[in-house]
Amino acid sequence: MKQIKRMMRMHRIFVTQELKRMLEYKANFVVGVIAFLLGQITNILFIWIIFSQIPNLMGWNINQIVFIYGFSLIPKGIDHLFFDNLWMIGHFYVSRGEFDKYLTRPVNTLFHVLVERLQIDALGELIMGISLICVSIPKVSIKWSLQKGVLTIVAIIFATFIYTGIKIGTAAIAFWTKKSGNITYMFYMVNDFAKYPVTIYNNTVRGVITYIIPFAFTAFYPASYILTNANPLYNVGMTVVISIVLMTIGIIIWNMGIRAYESAGS
Amino acid sequence: MRKKLKIYLPFVNAGMQETATYRTNWVFWQLGNILGCFISYFLWRAIFVSSENGSMNGFTMPQMIVYIFLMFLTTTLINSGGTYDIGEEIRDGSISMRLIKPISYNATFLFQELGNKIMTVCVLIIPLVAGVEFVRYRFTGEVQFHILMFLLYFLSAIFAYLINFFFNICFGFIAFVIKYLWGANMMKNCIVGFLSGQIIPLAFLPEMAKKVFLILPFASLNYTPVMIYMGMYTGTKMLMYIGLQMFWVLFFWGLSKLLWSVAIKHLSVQGG
Q: Most buried residue, A221, B24, B76, B124, by most Cβ within 10 Å?
């Protein structure tokens, strides 16, 4: 308990530090948010242009597609906001020898890395995700209930940790190879598959994003439960299970990596 | 000329070695990008299945597959990192090391990039072109590869690279204004990606937008070479678009010279 209290307090200190830094560089904040917003806007333009020429996409109408797309941005954005620092491990910190500093401090290394930075750019994704959901919700006729409300929040939280778990595991590869940023990148490209209904893919791709690199559980499965009420045990339950499994694997790889780590610095 | 070449050849070598050093990282990067192509492929397949007619805006399904993969190849070929490199050098002060040497600032970049470009071309071009031709053969039953078309594509891609190179240098000077390069670069990539047809072929856009976008320099980047390869630009139309590309090369070359002479006066290097 005392341990948790201490961690919470440290988290608060780090966040305050980050907010101060953000206020110092206001222009960066604007540029970053606009950049991520623009990235999403071009994708939405794509969906919009396509749907002006076809009635539906294999049975999904534009509102459903926009809802799933918007939902996919929420866990992605939350993970991006809080745990973006993991990218730096694989891209720079280990190869430049800067990781050593984490080892010299009396805190758990993973915890320190996670709370050290707040990536405000992520607001671009979150703003877009929330807007898309708000725009599409009145048009997709969802039947809300208390159960659904609770399960939606559960799904978003655990979907976020699917991203974080994958990032921890792939970032930790850098402890052996010095650079692993592009391995994380490769996994992230797979996540783009999950922004659209998995039913449009063939069985191989569907199998990969459901069972091997299960990004489909960050967006399509939970979103389809919200849309259709179908099978909450599978659509949300599996999101929780997979999230816990991936976090566990990530942390195991991380701890093994820390033991194998040799500094690249001079 | 020979003397010049002798000065800049080590930069080509350095570029090649740079790519070779981080090759595992490079392989994963390209694997990620190819995965991205497959997402586009499945998405377009679903779109064509859902569409009532076999062709959309002049594209059939096999043509769309060819478009997706050629777009990826062309984007990789013409990719240029000038924005980031110049910005970083201004920030960390290492630009001063380049300035005190009696060689052209731009040329050192160009030759260094040529080095890692050679590596990329060797690894990517053969499998991708072979793959694309295989798709075309399977759908039409005849070999459609024309060496002349391929050479014209390559020429057009070289012009596209030069446009991109000088455009990125111009953009790199933004580092004097915007300090957050990563964000600025990402913003640029989003806009250029859309206007150059990476996300959706320009033929799919509304008539007015299409007309404007085709004249803008961004269509000269990826869209023109890909259209030439696919045989959608032929004869005078092709000559016109290649001419437009040449115009944009000269334009951005001139602009980068101008910006350079202005910027260099305001450069204050912090440390380094």
A: A221
Interface A–B counts its CB contacts (< 8 A) at: 106
Taking residues A164-186, what's their average pLDDT? 91
Helix, strand, or coil (residue A96):
coil
Rounded CA separation A168/A83 (Å)? 9
Q: Say which amino acid occupies B109.
A: F
Per the listing, tokens 């941005």 go with: A73
Residue A266 lies in a domain: no
**Which of B61, B91, B179, B180 should one mutate to test binding to chain A, selecting the residue with the greatest count of A CBs within 10 A?**
B180
Token code pair at residue A149 = 């409300």
Residue-wise pLDDT for B14-38, tens only, equals: 877 877 777 777 888 888 888 888 8
Using one digit for the tens of pLDDT, what is the confidence trace for A72-82?
A: 999 999 999 99
CB contact under 8 A, B32 and A205: no
Residue B175, pLDDT score: 62
- Mean pLDDT over each residue of chain B, to the nearest integer: 84
Cβ distance A43 to B184 less than 8 Å, yes or no, reads: no
pLDDT per residue as tens digits for the range A77-126: 999 999 999 998 888 888 888 888 888 888 888 988 888 888 888 899 99
A53 is written with which tokens?
């020429």
Q: Is residue A265 assigned to a domain?
A: no
pTM over 0.80: yes
Q: Identify the DSSP state of A50.
A: H
Q: Select the residue from A51, A192, A198 to test the B interface by mutation, using most B Cβ atoms within 10 A.
A: A192
**Total structural domains in chain A?**
1
Distance set, CA B146 to CA B63, B74, B129 (Å) = 16, 18, 12
Report the pLDDT value the prediction gives residue B176, as an integer from 0 to 100: 64
Structure tokens at B271: 């440390």
Q: Which residues of A touch B (CB under 8 A)?
A: 25, 27-28, 31-32, 34-36, 38-39, 41-43, 45-46, 49-50, 53-58, 121, 177, 179-183, 185-186, 188-190, 192-193, 196, 200-202, 205
Give residue-wise pLDDT tens across range A147-163. Answer: 999 999 999 999 999 99
Structural domain boundaries enclosing A90: 2-260
The beta-carbon neighbor of B205 closest among A49, A181, A200 is: A49
Mean pLDDT of A228-244: 90
Asked whether residue A168 is assigned to any structural domain, the reply reads: yes
In-domain check, residue A175? yes
Question: What is the distance in angstroms between the Cα of A57 and the nearest Cα belonging to chain B?
Answer: 6
Q: For residue A224, give both structure tokens.
A: 């389809």
Which of A80, A199, A167 shows the shortest CA–CA distance to A128?
A: A80
Kindly tell me if the per-residue pLDDT of B90 is higher than 50. yes
B257 φ, ψ to 5°? -60, -45
Structure tokens at A92: 């720079």
Query: Scanning every residue of chain B, which has its alpha carbon at the shortest distance from the alpha carbon of A54?
Result: B51
Residues 6+ apart with CB under 8 A from B199: A42, A43, A45, A46, B193
- pLDDT digit string (tens) for B149-158? 889 999 999 9
pLDDT score recorded for residue B272: 43
The structure tokens listed for B259 are: 């910006």
